[in-house]
Design brief:
Elements: E1 6-10, H1 16-25, E2 33-38, H2 41-54, E3 60-64, H3 69-81, E4 90-95, H4 110-139, E5 153-159, H5 171-191, E6 196-203, E7 207-208, H6 214-217, E8 222-223, H7 224-235, E9 245-248
Parallel strand pairs: 1-2, 1-4, 2-3, 4-5, 5-6, 6-9, 7-8
Helix pairs in contact: 1-7, 3-4, 4-5
Length: 255
């Protein structure tokens, strides 16, 4: 069965990113051709090898990239030109970047604080812009009214509880997480009528790529594949009902 479309995932680490990638790309689930992005070539190689074993038949290509505008622009150009994605339209883009800085506030420099925001919030902004450009390139710029309800695709930002409340020594982390949450809301309000579904997900709790461990069975940790299934559910939502923000956690996580 040929892929049903294209998905782009930045942040393809060994737990959450791998679980999302497996579900979106697996022919029995999302069946989307997948471009996975990460800063480390070693991370990409490891994730690709894992998916080759656990998602046989999937179309997956890897692209080294950080969150800078230059790197993302070059990577999206490479995705456009890749033969594996010929004829496929973008359906989903997932920003799943992990970025944390924990420091005593009085020892954190202005440069460190701003650099953290540039890497995480600026990266989310650049990734969203590149994703929107590709969505409009593939689907046109007409809105839902003109197209009789044809949606273009979904952009998902993986966040944490830090987007809602911060803690001591988490100044730049909290500011960054809250910033991406607000960015998601702004983009969603601007482009919803154009058929672009934008979601911010607050993932609160440990996430592991393990379907049978005791921690996931008793609800202490989240299965990475459960995150992937939730994201696929979001991607498949139709314009009559769109989730704009979602809070996910395992049963035993305190809140």
């Amino acid at each position: 069965m040929p892929p049903a479309g294209l998905a782009i995932l930045i942040g393809a680490g060994p737990n959450t990113g791998t679980g999302i990638a497996r579900i979106l790309s697996h022919p029995s689930h999302g069946n989307l051709a997948l471009a996975i992005l990460a800063r480390s070539p070693d991370t990409l190689s490891s994730t690709a090898a894992n998916l080759a074993r656990t998602a046989p038949g999937s179309v997956i290509e890897t692209f080294p990239s950080d969150t800078s505008p230059k790197s993302l622009s070059e990577t999206f150009a490479a995705i456009r030109a890749h033969k594996s994605f010929d004829g496929l339209k973008l359906r989903a883009a997932v920003y799943n970047v992990k970025h944390a800085q924990v420091k005593n506030f009085m020892t954190e420099t202005h440069h460190e604080f701003v650099d953290s925001l540039t890497t995480y919030v600026g990266g989310a902004m650049a990734f969203a812009q590149e994703s929107l450009k590709l969505l409009f390139e593939h689907h046109g710029e007409q809105g839902l009214v003109e197209t009789k309800g044809e949606m273009k695709g979904t952009i998902i930002f993986t966040g944490t509880l830090g987007a809602m409340r911060s803690n001591a020594r988490f100044a730049s982390y909290g500011a960054g997480r809250a910033g991406v949450r607000q960015l998601s809301q702004s983009i969603g309000k601007e482009f919803s009528e154009k058929g672009v579904h934008v979601v911010h997900v607050i993932a609160n709790g440990g996430i592991v790529d393990d379907n049978e461990g005791e921690d996931v069975i008793i609800g202490k940790k989240i299965k990475a594949e459960s995150v992937g299934k939730t994201y696929l559910w979001l991607i498949e939502q139709e314009p009559d009902l769109w989730t704009s923000e979602l809070d996910i956690r395992p049963a035993l996580e305190k809140y």
